[in-house]
């Protein structure tokens, strides 16, 4: 029997920036501390910082996807809004999962990414879509919900 853990660990988009930053810098502090080190390294190495919603992102490399470090995101150059909103969804997960984020999402997501990448390199493409696991599907859904909510606010 397949379990949908997104029902056990529900996440809603946080459209209030003050609340997002408060949760990011308290409950979600571990990922943001790591993210601030990543951001400092990106700035020192000459990468430009951009904004997407309440998050800060950097572009690096080509055709690899993205990685979330709390409110700091690193994506491939020319990343489309779908990828950025997915990574923003992970930032929202960090606000909800806080200290548990690395264990519920971070490490499993990174491991899964590399296993899928290695599988493709040896000629065995993954049999399931990227969002077939709860935490990736949830990140995509929450990021999309955030963008829709913000469009309504700005209309």
Structural description of this entry:
This protein is of the alpha+beta class and 155 residues long. It has one domain (11-154). The chain is 56% helix and 10% strand. The chain has six helices and four strands, in the order αααββββααα. The radius of gyration is 15 Å and the shape is globular. The mean pLDDT is 93.
Describe the structure concisely for a colleague.
The protein has 155 residues and is α+β, with helices and mostly antiparallel strands. Helix content is 56%, strand content 10%.
Alpha-carbon Rg, integer: 15 Å
Tally of DSSP helical segments: 6
Structural class: alpha+beta
Major sheet: order of its strands? 1-2-4-3
Task: Let me know the average pLDDT.
Answer: 93
Question: Which H/E pattern describes the elements?
Answer: HHHEEEEHHH
Total number of β-strand segments? Answer: 4
Head-to-tail CA distance between termini: 43 Å
Fraction of residues in helix: 55-70%
Detail the poorly predicted runs.
none
Instruction: Please indicate the count of domains.
Output: 1
**What about the largest sheet?**
4 strands, mixed
Fraction in beta strands:
5-15%
Shape: globular
């Amino acid at each position: 029997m397949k379990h949908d853990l997104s029902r056990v660990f529900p996440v809603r988009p946080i459209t209030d920036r003050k609340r997002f930053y408060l949760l990011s810098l308290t409950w979600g502090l571990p990922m943001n501390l790591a993210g601030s080190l990543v951001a400092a390294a990106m700035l020192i190495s000459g990468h430009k910082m951009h904004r997407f919603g309440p998050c800060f992102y950097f572009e690096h490399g080509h055709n690899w996807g993205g990685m979330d470090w709390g409110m700091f995101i690193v994506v491939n150059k020319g990343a489309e809004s779908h990828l950025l909103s997915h990574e923003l969804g992970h930032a929202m997960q960090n606000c909800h999962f806080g200290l548990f984020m690395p264990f519920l999402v971070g490490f499993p997501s990174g491991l899964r990414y590399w296993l899928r990448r290695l599988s493709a390199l040896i000629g065995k493409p993954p049999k399931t879509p990227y969002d077939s696991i709860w935490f990736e599907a949830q990140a995509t859904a929450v990021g999309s919900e955030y963008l829709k909510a913000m469009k309504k606010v700005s209309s």
